[in-house]
């Protein structure tokens, strides 16, 4: 061993380290060039996500230190204690030439069986380290479960189902009464205000997750899980169902749209207004007829479909039994379309409703200033299962409408665009 | 075959062993030790182990193809290699296959082959049950995979969460195949666990006290206890699911008042110990390989054993960390968060002890050692990411994202599979009498290691960037494109690494023809399994080995002087048995384990398609059990050998060893009355031994 080994070891070690660093730098550079990450958990936009990251980053830091210590030790030990080569011996006995499979009789090091103190040390030190971390973890856990919103503040019931999200707004915070607003896929909420959620499901287990605002919470049928969400900046935050929920699990997205308080009030006032039934001769009347004949079995437009909202919701609360395929899940449990045109996405937020969303039109003005994404909308109405796998025959998801003519579809789209 | 009429139990001089008639019509026993029948009806733990391993490798290819399909689908956003439905089936079967049909049977292969050898036994306690375990496992695995051709594979995820696994949401027969197939495989694991626990507790060679057992044997023992208690839980869960699906029960029907979290608790009470069932055998293997190629004993043997036991115990108290977001109360979350964090302690102890074993050693980077060191390094990464989501608040961000996918692949691929590959390279010469090619092996290792990190390293980033698991597609503007492409490329590098491994098997096999034999102990190893010829003779050891200390075999080759210097006192060839003994009684092969195992999938198919078939399957099982019970103890034709005994019963008392008694194979030996401690291959369930016991009493 001695100086010769150390010299060789040193050279090799630094060469390898340099390679690793170059690779690491290249990887980081590539990441920086990559697109925006709308679901990024590490760029928080709310106090809850902040709390989580404040806990995660130090732990990750400790983990990275331990990582380098252990990997460094592995590399160091292998290089330092690697036995000398015995090329001739290996060649003589048919080894692969570098002699790694052969030892000489004189190659036994000191036989150490253990060291109680050392082993106790590396049992106790990690225990203490983890105990310290767990104190912080428990503190965060308590803080994340605190609800600061008052009893009569806004409260939203979140209902997951295959494969979209429904948001029922209780402006007075009382979830025992029918909601004031029912909407789908886009959770519009005021900035810098904690919004308590009650999360549930109508069919299988889903998981509600807006990563930049808070961690996830499962939506379990038959249970209601409290959760909170709060954004410190206005914006549009992407969400995704994260509990595997069948065919179109990937296509169960959503957005949290965070508005300034004044805009939020304006949005609420707009949503509280029912749609007015159109009279013959008004633009969109033909489409309304098509809608009533084909879509109103499942979709609600407040004020037009002559279903009382309370009855509607009573029906929705009946969970379709796991063995009763006949109790159609879709009846009364398709997205409420009263204000469809005021939203920016449809079909579980997988399609943009307006093509020029990227131009960052203020949320409240999309219905006026948006260019309709007619292609996707018409294709969706024509044959939804083709665009997003579902099991409409088994009453899960939107069915195809082969009976609609192109004229019907044009009329329908015209009608839907009146639902602002 | 080296069978004789010598029963495994010793008779006092002059006593005659009375044999019942062995000709009961069809109830004769199969014979011969070559040809496919000798494999189909074998009860030899080594052949069973090899078949377990071969089956696991076959399923590895199937599960690997499924993985490649997943990666192809996700290579670019909006991929259309697979439909949504097909994708769900493929990822479900990838998980089910890799967990239940690759890692578990691979561990079973090592357990079957090595465990009796490492404790100096002739076979396992119940050889026919052992054969049954193998065939039941294979039946379950094949049954599961036939679902591909029968209307669709399971599509509810390997975790099968209710109610998504129910009939409404998964209307194909896939989840029935899942529930029933895992049930069959579970029977195999349960039976095998009982068998191996009995073997370790009762059949250790004289002097092999529990704390002289190799670490691998210890880890396998812990795993068998985990299986013994975990399999019943999944059995219950799968029964409930099957009854819901097949007979309209309401266990998970929310409309009827069920709480779907019941399934999650049952599944994870099984599922988390299962994680340790997957990793502990690899820990054991690494604890055998690293000392040999560091030329040092394992550092801190008691810590290694007790940390394994501690993991086994603590593994029961962490299951709900899979459910931090499922809606449990904060108190449960806090409790499981704490227990999960602290299970990192015994795991960390193991890693540091492996490093300390290498410290000051003479490290030879053989392929086996590379894989073991690689497994230490990769498992560490999985362990550290595990700590980051043991913290429940952080887990609410990470759970069900690719961060978790990265984490458990570092544990199960980087830890378990690499550890087992290390074991394959290490024990291959013992099993087949020739080494695997080292050069190809090393190239394969580096290809696999690079491919592995290329595939699963970026998944950490993807997960933190918010990519959900189990999604068949992602939007182009989600920012996941780059790392997914990396991962897909990496998965094909892994595939090349796996192909190199299979290529190596073929090349090495061809090269071994006509090459000089590898000898009993090609690595200068420590365990008893190296103290007999390679490949291991059917009867394992020629004589009883009396153990006087840990690493008995090593101490018979080397002496540690007063000054700590190690000097050779014997060559391996001189210490090891040459496999020439002919007086060893071995259990005869049997038809019945195969028959009983064959009945299981019939019952399962019947439950799905037609209850008459279930009846038929039940009859096959009953018939098989009937034959099993009435099977004659031995094959009368096999009594050709002379009933002679080993001439030198004291051969194996060891160098300079005085304690522990002498060999006990001779009739006159001091232990001849003690039947249970003998090298009994026949075991309690097998014919001859049971028969002899009866007649003695």
* Greatest interface (CB-CB under 8 A), with counts per chain: A-B, 110 and 123 residues
- What's the β-strand tally of chain B? 2
The average pLDDT score of chain A comes to 83
Silhouette of chain A: elongated
Low-confidence stretches of chain A: 1-10, 87-97, 308-331
Cα end-to-end separation of chain A: 81 Å
Number of helical stretches of at least 4 residues of chain A: 11
Largest sheet of chain A: 5 strands, mixed
- CATH H-level homologous superfamily name of one domain in chain B: Cytochrome c oxidase-like, subunit I domain
The CATH topology annotation of one domain in chain B reads as Cytochrome C Oxidase, Chain A
> Regarding CATH, which class of one domain in chain B?
Mainly Alpha
Mean of residue pLDDT of chain B? 87
Give me the secondary-structure category of chain B.
Answer: mainly alpha
What is the assembly state of the chains in this entry?
A: heterodimer
How much of the residues of chain A is beta strand, in percent?
A: 5-15%
Euclidean distance between termini CA atoms of chain B: 30 Å
How much helix, percentage-wise, in residues of chain B?
55-70%
How would you characterize this protein structure?
- The complex is a heterodimer of chains A (420) and B (697).
- Chain A is an alpha+beta fold and 420 residues long.
- Chain A contains 11 helices and 12 strands.
- Chain A has a 5-stranded mixed beta sheet with strand order 3-2-1-5-8. In chain A, strands 4-10-9 form a 3-stranded mixed beta sheet.
- Chain A is elongated and about 100 Å long.
- Chain A starts with a helix and ends with a helix.
- Residues 1-10, 87-97 and 308-331 of chain A have low confidence and may be disordered.
- Chain B has 20 helices and 2 strands.
- By secondary structure, chain B is mainly alpha-helical.
- In chain B, β1 and β2 (566-568) form a beta hairpin.
- Chain B has a domain at 38-512: Cytochrome c oxidase-like, subunit I domain (Cytochrome C Oxidase, Chain A), CATH 1.20.210.
- At the A-B interface, α2 and α4 of A face α3, α8, α9, α10 and α11 of B.
């Amino acid at each position: 061993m001695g100086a010769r080994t150390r010299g060789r070891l040193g050279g090799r070690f630094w060469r390898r380290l340099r390679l690793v660093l170059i690779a690491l730098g290249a990887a980081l550079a590539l990441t920086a060039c990559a697109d925006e990450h709308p679901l990024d958990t590490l760029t928080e936009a709310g106090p809850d996500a902040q709390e989580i990251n404040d806990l995660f980053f130090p732990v990750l830091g400790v983990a990275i230190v331990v990582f380098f210590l252990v990997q460094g030790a592995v590399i160091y030990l292998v290089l330092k204690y690697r036995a000398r080569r015995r090329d001739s011996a290996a060649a003589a006995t048919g080894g692969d030439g570098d002699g790694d499979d052969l030892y000489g009789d004189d190659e036994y090091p000191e036989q150490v069986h253990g060291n109680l103190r050392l082993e106790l040390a590396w049992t106790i030190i990690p225990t203490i380290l983890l105990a310290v971390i767990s104190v912080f973890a428990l503190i965060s856990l308590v803080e994340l479960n605190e609800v600061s919103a008052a009893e009569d503040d806004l409260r939203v019931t979140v209902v997951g189902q295959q494969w979209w999200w429904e948001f029922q707004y209780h402006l007075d915070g009382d979830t025992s009464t029918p909601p004031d607003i029912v909407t789908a896929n886009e959770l519009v909420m005021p900035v810098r205000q904690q919004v308590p959620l009650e999360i549930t499901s109508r069919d299988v287990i889903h998981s509600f997750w807006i990563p930049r605002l808070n961690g996830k919470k499962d939506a379990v049928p038959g249970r209601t899980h409290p959760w909170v969400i709060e954004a410190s900046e206005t914006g549009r935050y992407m969400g995704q169902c994260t509990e595997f929920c069948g065919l179109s699990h990937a296509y169960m997205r959503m957005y949290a749209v965070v508005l300034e308080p004044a805009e939020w009030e304006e949005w609420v006032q707009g949503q509280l207004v029912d749609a007015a039934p159109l009279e013959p001769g008004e633009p969109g009347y033909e489409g309304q007829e098509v809608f009533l004949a084909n879509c109103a079995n499942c979709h609600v437009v407040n004020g037009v479909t002559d279903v009382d909202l309370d009855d509607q919701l009573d029906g929705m609360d009946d969970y379709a039994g796991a063995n009763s395929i006949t109790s159609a899940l879709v009846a009364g449990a398709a997205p409420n379309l009263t204000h469809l045109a005021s939203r920016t996405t449809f079909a579980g937020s997988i399609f943009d409703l307006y093509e020029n969303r990227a131009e960052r039109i203020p949320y409240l003005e999309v219905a006026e200033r948006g260019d309709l994404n007619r292609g996707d909308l018409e294709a969706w109405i024509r044959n939804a299962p083709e665009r997003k796998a579902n099991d409409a025959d088994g009453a899960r998801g939107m069915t195809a409408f082969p009976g609609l003519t192109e004229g019907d579809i044009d009329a329908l789209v015209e009608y839907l665009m009146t639902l602002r | 075959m080296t069978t004789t009429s010598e029963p495994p139990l010793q008779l006092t001089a002059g006593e005659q062993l009375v044999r019942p008639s062995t000709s009961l019509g069809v109830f004769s026993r199969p014979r011969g030790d070559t040809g496919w029948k000798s494999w189909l009806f074998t009860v030899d733990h080594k052949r069973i182990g090899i078949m377990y391993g071969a089956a696991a490798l076959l399923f590895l290819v199937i599960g690997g193809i499924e993985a490649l399909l997943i990666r192809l689908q996700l290579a670019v956003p909006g991929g259309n290699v697979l439909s949504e439905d097909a994708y769900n089936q493929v990822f479900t079967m990838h998980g089910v296959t890799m967990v239940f049909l690759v890692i578990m049977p691979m561990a079973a292969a090592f357990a079957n082959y090595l465990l009796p050898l490492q404790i100096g036994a002739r076979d396992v306690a119940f050889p026919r049950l052992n054969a049954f375990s193998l065939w039941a496992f294979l039946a379950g695995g094949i049954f599961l995979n036939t679902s591909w051709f029968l209307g669709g594979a399971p599509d509810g995820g390997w975790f099968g969460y209710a109610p998504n696994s129910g009939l409404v949401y998964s209307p194909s027969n896939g989840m029935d195949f899942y529930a029933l197939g895992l049930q069959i495989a579970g029977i195999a694991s349960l039976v095998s666990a009982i068998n191996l626990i009995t073997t370790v507790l009762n059949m250790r060679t004289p002097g092999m006290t529990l704390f002289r057992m190799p670490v691998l044997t210890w880890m396998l023992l812990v795993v068998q206890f985990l299986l013994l208690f975990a399999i019943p839980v999944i059995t219950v869960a799968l029964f409930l699911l099957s009854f819901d699906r097949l007979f309209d029960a309401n266990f998970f029907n929310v409309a009827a008042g069920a709480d779907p979290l019941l399934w999650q608790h049952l599944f994870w009470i099984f599922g988390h110990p299962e994680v340790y069932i997957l990793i502990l055998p690899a820990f054991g293997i690494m604890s055998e390989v690293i000392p040999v190629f560091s030329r040092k004993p394992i550092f801190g043997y008691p810590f290694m054993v007790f940390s394994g036991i501690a993991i086994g115990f603590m593994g029961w108290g962490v299951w709900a960390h899979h459910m931090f977001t499922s809606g449990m109360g904060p108190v449960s979350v806090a409790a499981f968060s704490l227990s999960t964090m602290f299970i990192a302690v015994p795991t960390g102890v193991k890693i540091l002890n492996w490093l300390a074993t290498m410290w000051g050693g003479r490290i030879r980077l053989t392929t086996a050692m590379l894989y073991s060191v690689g497994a230490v390094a990769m498992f560490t990464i999985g362990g550290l990411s595990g700590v980051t989501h043991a913290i429940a608040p952080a887990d609410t961000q990470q759970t069900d994202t690719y961060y978790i996918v990265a984490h458990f692949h570092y544990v199960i691929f980087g830890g378990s599979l690499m550890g087992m590959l290390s074991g394959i390279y290490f024990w291959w010469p013992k099993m087949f009498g020739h080494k695997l090619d080292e050069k190809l092996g090393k190239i394969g290792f580096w290809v696999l290691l690079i491919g592995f990190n290329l595939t699963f390293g970026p998944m950490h980033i993807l997960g933190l960037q918010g990519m959900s698991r189990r999604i068949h597609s992602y939007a182009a503007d989600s920012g996941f494109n780059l790392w997914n492409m990396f991962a897909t490329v990496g998965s094909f590098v892994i595939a090349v690494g796996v192909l190199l491994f299979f290529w190596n098997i073929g090349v090495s096999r061809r090269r071994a023809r006509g090459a000089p034999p590898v000898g009993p102990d090609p690595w200068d190893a420590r365990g008893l399994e190296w103290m007999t010829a390679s490949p291991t003779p059917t009867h394992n050891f020629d004589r009883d080995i009396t153990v006087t200390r840990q690493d008995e075999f090593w101490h018979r080759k080397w002496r540690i002087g007063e000054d700590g210097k190690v000097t050779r006192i014997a060559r391996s060839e001189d210490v090891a048995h040459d496999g020439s003994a002919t007086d060893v009684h071995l259990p005869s092969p049997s038809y019945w384990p195969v028959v009983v195992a064959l009945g299981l999938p019939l019952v399962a198919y019947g439950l799905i398609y037609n209850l008459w078939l279930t009846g038929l399957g039940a009859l096959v099982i009953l018939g098989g059990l009937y034959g099993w019970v009435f099977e004659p103890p031995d094959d009368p034709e096999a009594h050709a050998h002379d009933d002679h005994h080993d001439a030198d019963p004291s051969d194996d008392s060891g160098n300079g060893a005085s304690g522990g008694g002498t060999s006990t194979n001779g009739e006159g030996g001091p232990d001849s009355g003690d039947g249970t401690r003998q090298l009994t291959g026949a075991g309690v369930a097998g014919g001859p031994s049971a028969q002899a016991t009866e007649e003695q009493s």
